[in-house]
Design brief:
The protein is of the alpha/beta class and 512 residues long. The protein contains 24 helices and seven strands.
Length: 512
């Protein structure tokens, strides 16, 4: 069974071997910090007005990635090894947790296929949320130890929280789940004692740990500036700009059906169990709710569900049926899981799961993945270009990583970390060539424009080398193009750069 489950898991996450776009701005920040001796609080990468101070909540992730790939010299191989180590920790953590709660291997294996179907999207290469999934399992383990009366558990939580806090803004999930756990314990005590004040008093120690957790939030490189930043980040509506923050039903009906089925299974267990027999039910409810409204959180729900749901199912009629079938039809099930394992492994090999991918063509962009301007960046670097480059949202961090400080960008995927929301909307409007797009060029001192070949702007500019007036008139000339991007320079600069056409020619993208 474990072979089948492992093969299925590997197959699911092997599709996510494309380098994550946020990785580049995280590592660029750490490289800059090493250069100046501290984490900069003022933006240095963009030539447009940015937020001050810049509070980068993923600086710790950037440090780990930089150390592994650059300082240790492990490069792409080191990044992939780190990804699969984290993925293994999450998978084995769910297994260990669920069986420790009372789930049998057969029940966990059957439910695991559903868990994989819901959670695979959180295993990109590598985004900070992968660390959050690890910390969710650690937190759940500690609260269950506390539930058993182990006094050390919440003390151990505090240093864990400090690490989480400085790796990813997902530390708020930890604060929230700790509060949910305390609420669950309070409700259980109230149902038993029928006394509000007494039940609240029984929670005093845990509430103090929750308060200490909140106070520890100040222990970060940005101090008290972190608090207004994180408040703005939480209340900001990202749905118009980033699809993964949209409700589950707007992203994938298949995932929504899996979500409904998983909750239906929990509700089924509730019909056969007392509330006290379902520890962690509040955690499942909370993570299910946030994942319904934000697809980004579905992997968090999947991890919580895989930790608790198998133990719920174990002592039900359905759980008994699973165990009975496994005993009576062990050979058939072995064949089925071997087929799943072999098929999953072959699919992962076909995807070259060990190979880091850096998409560079418009054709690859049709897969819904970021496309990186490797060719245009090499061209600018070879021609020793220095200046301000207008870039789309998902290419800016790559450009900064490769060309900073000679080149500054107009935008990158840091989003609310560095840019006002209006600037993000302005960038999207510009590359869609919507009415008034020229004003974006006149608003800032732009020397060159990087344009994805599949965007409307490339069609507009490619037709007539658009004139833009801002006191002076500039003619924008395409000096470079390949199968992914076009590069336009102002006419006064373009004279020094040869016209280069790399369409249909191989381009190599190197990491880091």
């Amino acid at each position: 069974m474990f072979f089948g489950l492992g093969g299925g898991f590997l197959a699911a996450i092997s599709r996510l071997n494309i380098v994550d776009l946020d990785l580049f701005h995280e590592m660029a920040l750490i490289r800059e910090a090493f250069g100046v001796g501290f984490l900069p609080r003022a933006d240095t990468f963009s030539y447009v007005p940015t937020i001050s101070p810049v509070v980068h909540h993923e600086w710790g992730t950037g440090l780990i990635l930089y150390l592994v790939t650059v300082q240790l010299g492990l490069g792409a191989d080191g990044l992939m090894v780190l990804k699969y180590l984290l993925a293994a920790f999450i998978a084995l953590g769910c297994l260990f947790f669920a069986t420790r709660q009372g789930a049998s291997y057969p029940v966990f294996s059957f439910l695991g296929l559903l868990g994989i179907a819901m959670g695979w999207s959180g295993f990109s290469t590598i985004r900070a949320q992968l660390f959050t999934l690890c910390f969710v399992i650690i937190l759940l383990f500690l609260v269950e130890e506390d539930r058993k009366g182990k006094g050390w558990a919440l003390w151990a939580w505090l240093p864990v929280y400090l690490l989480w806090l400085n790796l990813h803004g997902g530390f708020l999930v930890g604060v929230g789940l700790l509060a949910v756990y305390i609420s669950e314990r309070f409700v259980m005590n109230f149902l038993a004692e029928k006394n509000f004040l007494k039940s609240l008093k029984m929670m005093k120690r845990r509430i103090l740990f929750l308060m200490a957790t909140c106070l520890l939030t100040l222990i970060n490189p940005y101090g008290s500036n972190y608090l207004p930043y994180i408040w703005n980040a939480v209340t900001l509506d990202r749905t118009p700009f980033i699809p993964e923050w949209r409700p589950l039903w707007e992203i994938s009906w298949a995932d929504l059906l899996a979500w409904i089925f998983s909750l239906g299974m929990v509700l089924y267990c509730k019909t056969q169990k007392d509330l006290r027999q379902m520890p962690g039910l509040f955690v499942i409810a909370a993570t299910a709710w946030v994942s319904l409204w934000h697809y980004r959180h579905l992997s968090i729900y999947a991890v919580a569900w895989m930790c608790y749901a198998p133990s719920y199912v174990e002592k039900t009629s359905f759980g008994n049926l699973i165990n009975k079938v496994c005993k009576q039809s062990s050979r058939l099930l072995t064949v089925i899981f071997v087929i799943i394992g072999v098929s999953g492994t072959l699919y992962a090999v076909r995807n070259q799961f060990w190979q880091l991918r850096i998409p560079i063509t418009a054709e690859e962009g049709k897969e819904g993945v970021p496309v990186y301007p490797a060719g245009a960046v090499s061209y600018l670097k070879d021609k020793k270009f220095s200046g301000n480059l207008m870039v789309p949202f998902d290419a800016g961090a790559y450009v900064s990583w490769k060309l900073y400080p000679e080149v500054k960008v107009s935008m990158d995927s840091r989003f609310e970390v560095a840019y006002p929301v209006q600037a993000v909307g302005e960038n999207i409007m510009f590359y869609a060539a919507e009415e008034g797009w020229q004003k974006t060029l006149t608003k800032y001192k732009t020397d060159a424009i990087l344009v994805p070949r599949w965007r409307k702007l490339d069609q507009v500019m490619g037709k007539n080398d658009v004139y833009i007036s801002n006191g002076n008139s500039f003619r924008w000339t395409r000096v470079y193009q390949d199968d992914g991007y076009s590069l336009y320079l102002r006419s006064d600069l373009a004279k020094r750069f040869p016209i280069t056409d790399m369409r249909g020619k191989p381009i190599t993208a190197h990491f880091p």
